Every structure is written in C-alpha cells, then in structure tokens.
Amino acid sequence: MGGGQDQKRVFLAIALSVVVIALWQVFFVPEPPPPGEAGSDAGVIANGADAGAQPAGVPPAAVAGDPAGTPDGAPAVAAPDATPVRVIAPQDVVLEAESFKATLTNRGARLKHFFVQSPLQYQPRGDLLQPGPLDGETEQEPPPENFETFLSLATQLGGELRLNEQAMYDVVESGPDKAVFRHTDPAGRYTVTKTFTVGSRPHTIELAVVLENKQPAGVLTDELEVVNYGRQKEGDGDWSLFDPIPNTMEAVCYAGGDAERMPRDDAAEKPSIPGPITWGGVDTRYFTNVVIPAEPFEKCRIGLEQREFFRMAVVSPKFTLEPGQSKTWLLSSYVGPKEIEAMASFTVGLEESVDYGVFAFLCRPFRWVLVHFEGWVGNWGLAIILLTLGLRMLLFPVNQKAYGNMEGMRRLQPQLEVMRAKYKNDPQRLNTEMMKLYQQENVSMFGCLPMFIQIPIFFAFYRTIYNSVELYHADFALWYTDLSAPDPYYVLPVIVTGLMMGQQFFMPQTAQNAQMKVMMWMMPIMFGVFTFVLPSGLGLYLTVSVSLGIAQQYYIRRRLKAKNGDTPAPAGPKKAKKAKA
Q1: pLDDT tens by residue, 478-520
Q2: For the domain that residue 176 is a member of, what is the CATH number?
Q3: Is 374 in the same domain as 341?
Q4: Four-CA torsion 344, 349, 353, 357, nearest 10 degrees
Q5: Are residues 333 and 377 in the same domain?
Q6: How many domains is the chain built from?
Q7: CA-CA distances (angstroms) from residue 270 to 100, 194, 237, 266?
Q8: In this structure, are residues 552 and 544 in contact, taking their beta carbons and an 8 Å threshold?
Q9: Share of the chain above pLDDT 70, in %
Q10: Domain span at 341
Q11: Neighbour-count burial of 23, counting CB atoms closer than 10 A to its CB (0-12 exposed, 13-18 middle, 19+ buried)
Q12: Dihedral angle over CA of 79, 83, 86, 89, nearest 10
C-alpha cells in the first residue's frame, strides 16, 4: 500500500515539473535576435580582435572569411556578449607605374600580384609573387589553393593587440598611384591605417603604417611585424654536379652591415637574426622582394609555413601608446629585378642582395664593364666577347710567359727521357741533373703556375653571368635569346669541348703515369660536357677565350721554333747545313 502511494507522488512530481518548464519557456525566455544583428566570434576575428591568436599560415576561411571563419554566404554564429561586427567584402586595388603593375587586397591590406612592365626584358618572369618556376623558363603553374594565405607586405601585431595578417580592412582611398586601407578593432581599442603609394624609384612601393590608440584610458604595448613570403616546393633547387649554384628561394636579412642569407631548409635552425635591421625579405637569383624600414628594426624573424612557404618578417622594437597617441612606421618595398644601380639608390646596401660569393671583388667590376660595353654596342653577347678580349689582353704577358715555359718543357722532353733512363735508380741525382738542365735552358718547372690565375677569373665570370639579372633573357643572335639559360641546341658546348680537346695538342706531354695521361685528356672533355648545362653566355665566353688561347699558343710555338732553329728558315746556310747534316 505504501509502495502505491510513493508511485503516485512520483508521477505527480513529474507532471508538475513539466508544467513549470512550459510556463518558464512562455513567460521568461527572451526571443532570439534577428539574423545579422548579433555579433559572432568569427566576425570579431575577421576584423582583427583576437585575430593574432591564429598562427600565420591558417587558411583564410579560418581567420578572415566573409564574415571571417565562415564560407561566403554562411550565417554568423551568435556568441554571448559579442560586439556587433560589420562584414567587409573582399576588394582589390591596382597600383600602376611605368615600371610595374601591382594588385593589393583589403584582406590584410597586402600585396597580391606584382608584374614588371619595364624593362621588357623581365616581363617573361610574369607575376613575381605568384608561385611558379623560379627561373621563369616555363609557364607558371596554377597557384595552390592556399596561395592567398601567404601574401607579402602583411602586417601583424602578435602581442597584446592580436592583429592577424589577414584581418579585413576598409578601402578608404584607391587610385592608380595611391591606396589607403583602414582596420578598426571591433573592441574599439585601436585603428590601423596602411597607405601604399607608388615610389619615385623603379619597382618601389612606399608604405606608411599608422597605429592609433582609440581608448579613453589604457596603454597599448606590442611590436609590429612586416611580413614577406616566398614559395619553393620541397625538393626544388637541390644541388647537383650539373647545377652547382641552383636557383633557390632564400630569406635575406641585412643586419649590422652584412647581408645574411638563409636557405629554406635552415630556417628552423636560426629562426631569428638580431638587429639593427636595415632591410629584409626573400629573393631568388634574379629577383627580390624586400622591405626597407626608414628607421632600423629590431630583428628578422624567419619561418616555414606548410613546408613550402618561406616567411620572412622584419620586427620593430616594442612600443607603448598612451590613450589618444599614434605611431607611424615608414617603409619602402622593392619588388623586382636585382638591378644594382636601382637598388644602390636606396643607399642602404640593398645591392648586397646580389650573391656573387667569394669572388664578388672580381664579379662587380666584370659586371660594371659588361654593362658599359652593352651600352656601347647594344648587345649583351657582343659585350661578353669584348670583355673576353679585354681579359685576354690584360693577361697576355702572364700567358705569354706560361706558354713560353710550356714550349720549353716540350722541347726538353727528349733530354729528360734520357736522364730518367740513365738515373732511374738514383732519384736524387735525377732531380739534380733535371734542375741543372732547367737552369741551363732558362725553363722553370713551375712556369705554368701563372696560368692558374685564370681559374678565379673563370669562376668569377661564371658567377657574374649566373647572378647578373642583366643577362636574364638577354638577346645575342640566332636562337640565343637568353644568355642566362643553356644553349637550346648545344652548339656552343660542342664547340667548347672540341676546342679544349684540341688545346691539349699544344700542351707539353710531361706526364709519365698512364692514369695521369688519361686524366689530362679527360678533364677538358668533362669540362666541356659541363657547358651543356651552363648559361650560354658562359659558353660564349669559353669559346672566345679558348680560341684566343690556342691562337696565342700557336704563335708562341712558331716564334720559338724559328728562334731555336727547330724549323728550316726561308734562307740561310746555317739552317741548310743543319738540315743536310
């Protein structure tokens, strides 16, 4: 009986609970806000509040959609106590000058595309910012889906203010030579204004970043990052025997008067370079994308996103803004070919981005002479020929002495063979007698050493042609329309190989070891084969240089033969008598 009463009490309690819940829903729960009136966390991220909490490299849908974090057209998700956010639609602005055409996007107020318009020589490279072949020899591949996540001239406040690279900006002003973007913090703490103007120098965009503290009370403290990106797929640009100086994407940071280069794979080992920083960015062999602050920045910060996007940021010193205060950073962005004269106009050592290596002390004057020769003759191939002739004339005395000594060694070979047979069991006596013979005939066994001076000259010329953008798509004649690329029909490599093998006939055959003799013939063959993958400009230099070397050796041999009576003279009893004898 007691159990039945308990069951009745339970059923009554359940019924009363249902009635209470129904009455509460009717009289006490507020109506949901209409769509579009309530804010959302995603919308806050789109306009920059807490946007910096997202790491660089997060796709745009996660941090800056329309509204941010949601696909186009999807409704924002309501969040309690969120500030209403105005959705900003994506918009592009085009800047155009005589030397370039650039596209900016209001998603982060960043540089989206950059095309060189002048000189025409560099147009085949196409969009300098769009991922594609580094050397520009083939058509550019379609950009990856996440390409717009990693755009240059991004600005980030990664500390207290949490402004992400991809925060949305209003387009305040747009025109062919100026664009102004403004981002307003949804919490009302600050505004960021980015003004882009066409610079007076070629390939230059001037950037002004203004941060203003809008709070009636409260101090803002942070540091500004200005970020550039470059892309190189994993495995591209690896060193090989036939490509000893591969064209790679690298970070470059000019700190303390020295340009420090960082290959992509080394970014993890040295993610930061201390300042003072004069400029920093990313570059390839012929083109660069750098930021130059008007005042030195504190450091360079390097990273690798998704294993193929090289992130290079110049970081300002930490700053503090009182209520109502503002701070302005002035920067120049140089995007374009590594023309030394154009880069030197900044007077900040930007020309050091051209990586000539240890032979820079030779490469720079070589390039200077090449540029002046091209200015006279109007053809880069002819300029290379003239420079080669000049170098040969400069080295004529050195080569004359070396070739003369080589001919003397060749003439002494029969006597040396007799000595080797006579003193084969007495090496010490053999060396003594050989030295006497060399002294008597005024021949030095080290007389060929002066020729080694040409080795650094060759490598310097190699680096000059490989790293001077002036030879990129430089025209010569016939099918030679790019002296920085290999000969497409291998004509010059075949000529160089044949000339180098022919040059061996003028060399004294002093090697006694069979392996050494084989090596003496194999080296010119291997060297000639390398020219199949070297720039055709270098093949042109080798063709002219080796041809002149053979001519000089032939001249010296003829002269010495006549001098020493090795060949009959046109007239003279002494010669006739010697011939009769």
Answers
A1: 888 888 888 888 898 889 888 888 777 766 555 555 555 666 6
A2: 2.70.98.90
A3: no
A4: 110
A5: no
A6: 2
A7: 34, 30, 20, 7
A8: no
A9: 71
A10: 92-355
A11: exposed
A12: -50
